């Protein structure tokens, strides 16, 4: 087996050059059908002095006469991208360290994004999100094409037990669209400890302090007293290199540098979906997150500069005035029998808390497609419905119409709606409490 550090970033550059050049998307692209095959599995090194993306070519292990294929539908999607990533990072750090704002120039672009109103497209993206948990041919690998099961792949991203940030990169045949799939939480396995750390840091109100019995289970020392939590401390905790968001920034930066003209999409399930959303919001890339906990509060604590909301005349009048919400190309997909994206698996007696998870947030960035599995399928709210298998096989692949919560109408895919008037952690008070204690 080749050493991970023996395979350099040059390997990925070579693979990219062999696969052909990209086609620059039109300013006003038409809807289209895309054909994909699997390209890469990746590993991110922790060495800041070397390139971060290590990759292997899956195509070398595929029968060239019968390449695996599947189709997705894409449609024109308006995104707002920063003029440069350096400007975003500079503004973020200025806000974090000096509590000062710095303007970021946002450039409006029209690109090919996933057609979130097409059920088949959502099914394929969900299967991609599920496949980030496993290697091809293993148990719980979700087939996109039967020939995928014979893939022989390099286990980059799976050899370092302490890394935890794993996934797959897929590309269209014309190299015009890249899909990055990010793994979510693994309950039992080599990455579970780091997965839980990221979950509790990103989605808890205050460092995973559910109550006084969690004093030794917190992930940062930001709790003050009596439902008070220090804001500055929380923001400092979220910039650690061990946070998956920081690792993902390096990956996406390298990926977009390699494919500057390609449409890059991000997908993921649960924690992976939240990371996909945060990265999509950072870079202005379309993201689809399946059953993700609310990440809006995490974006605030990360001090992410986000494009402003639309002017008073809403761009989407059917949803009302959305002026207060940023325009990010993120779509969340979940069902109402899953308590985690709804922030309902909380409290010391909840299954999440019993397993050591403080998943307390429920407000999402972007828009959300919510399937009424309680009403249509008669499901009860149960954390066991959170697994990606339930979403793929028993929700998205179920044919027929779903309630759309609007005048009794039904649709094959419920409309994506913004979560207006959503508030997280309303019991808590946030401020500079640590500084106040030191001053006294």
UniProtKB/TrEMBL annotation:
InterPro entries on file: AB_hydrolase_fold, ATG15_Lipase, Fungal_lipase-type
Signal peptide: 1-20
Predominant location: membrane
Membrane is among the record's keywords: yes
Membrane topology, as annotated: Single-pass type II membrane protein
Cellular component aspect of the GO annotation: multivesicular body membrane; vacuolar lumen
Reactions catalysed according to its record: a triacylglycerol + H2O = a diacylglycerol + a fatty acid + H(+)
Keyword Manganese set for record: no
Pfam annotation, one family: Lipase_3
Domain Fungal lipase-type residues, every copy: 252-281
GO biological process: multivesicular body membrane disassembly; neutral lipid catabolic process; phosphatidylserine catabolic process; piecemeal microautophagy of the nucleus
One GO MF term attached to the UniProt entry: triacylglycerol lipase activity
Subcellular compartments: Endosome, Multivesicular body membrane; Prevacuolar compartment membrane
Broad class of enzyme this protein falls into: hydrolase
The entry's keywords: Autophagy, Endosome, Glycoprotein, Hydrolase, Lipid degradation, Lipid metabolism, Membrane, Signal, Signal-anchor, Transmembrane, Transmembrane helix
CDD domains reported in the protein's UniProt record: Lipase_3
EC number: 3.1.1.3
Assembly notes: Binds to both phosphatidylinositol (PI) and phosphatidylinositol 3,5-bisphosphate (PIP2).
Known role: Lipase which is essential for lysis of subvacuolar cytoplasm to vacuole targeted bodies and intravacuolar autophagic bodies. Involved in the lysis of intravacuolar multivesicular body (MVB) vesicles. The intravacuolar membrane disintegration by ATG15 is critical to life span extension.
Family according to the record: Belongs to the AB hydrolase superfamily. Lipase family.
Name the UniProt record assigns to this protein: triacylglycerol lipase
Gene responsible for this protein: ATG15
């Amino acid at each position: 087996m080749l050493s991970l550090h023996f395979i350099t970033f040059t390997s990925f550059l070579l693979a990219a050059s062999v696969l052909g050049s990209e086609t620059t998307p039109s300013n006003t692209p038409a809807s289209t059908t895309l054909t994909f095959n699997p390209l890469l599995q990746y590993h991110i090194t922790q060495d800041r002095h070397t390139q971060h993306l290590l990759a292997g070519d899956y195509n070398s292990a595929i029968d060239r006469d019968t390449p695996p294929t599947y189709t997705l539908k894409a449609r024109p999607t308006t995104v707002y991208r920063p003029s440069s990533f350096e400007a975003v990072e500079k503004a973020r750090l200025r806000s974090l360290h000096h509590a000062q704002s710095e303007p970021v120039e946002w450039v409006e672009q029209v690109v090919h994004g996933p057609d979130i109103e097409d059920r088949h497209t959502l099914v394929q993206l969900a299967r991609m999100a599920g496949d980030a948990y496993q290697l091809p041919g293993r148990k719980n690998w979700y087939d996109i094409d039967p020939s995928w099961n014979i893939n022989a792949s390099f286990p980059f991203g799976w050899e370092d037990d302490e890394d935890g940030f794993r996934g797959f990169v897929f590309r269209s045949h014309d190299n015009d669209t890249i899909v990055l799939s990010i793994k979510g939480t693994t309950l039992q396995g080599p990455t579970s400890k780091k997965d839980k750390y990221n979950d509790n840091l990103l989605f808890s109100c205050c460092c995973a302090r559910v109550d006084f019995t969690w004093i030794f289970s917190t992930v940062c020392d930001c709790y003050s007293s009596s439902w008070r939590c220090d804001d500055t401390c929380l923001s400092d905790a979220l910039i650690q290199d061990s946070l998956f968001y920081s690792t993902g920034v390096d990956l996406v930066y390298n990926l977009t540098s390699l494919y500057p003209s390609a449409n890059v999409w991000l997908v993921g399930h649960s924690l992976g979906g939240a990371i996909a959303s945060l990265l999509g919001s950072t870079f202005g890339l379309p993201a689809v997150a399946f059953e993700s906990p609310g990440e809006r509060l995490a974006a605030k604590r990360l001090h992410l500069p986000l494009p402003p909301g639309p002017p008073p005349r809403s761009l989407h009048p059917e949803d009302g005035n959305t002026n207060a919400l940023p325009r990010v190309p993120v779509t969340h997909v979940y069902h109402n029998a899953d308590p985690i994206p709804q922030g309902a698996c909380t409290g010391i007696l909840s299954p999440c808390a019993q397993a050591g998870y403080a998943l307390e947030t429920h407000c999402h960035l972007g828009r959300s497609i919510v399937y009424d599995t309680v009403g249509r399928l008669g499901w009860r709210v149960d954390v066991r419905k959170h697994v990606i298998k339930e979403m793929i096989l028993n929700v998205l692949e179920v044919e027929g119409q779903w309630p759309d919560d609007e005048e009794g109408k039904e649709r094959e895919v419920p409309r994506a709606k913004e979560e207006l008037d959503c508030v997280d952690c309303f019991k808590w008070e946030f401020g500079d409490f640590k500084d106040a204690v030191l001053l006294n």
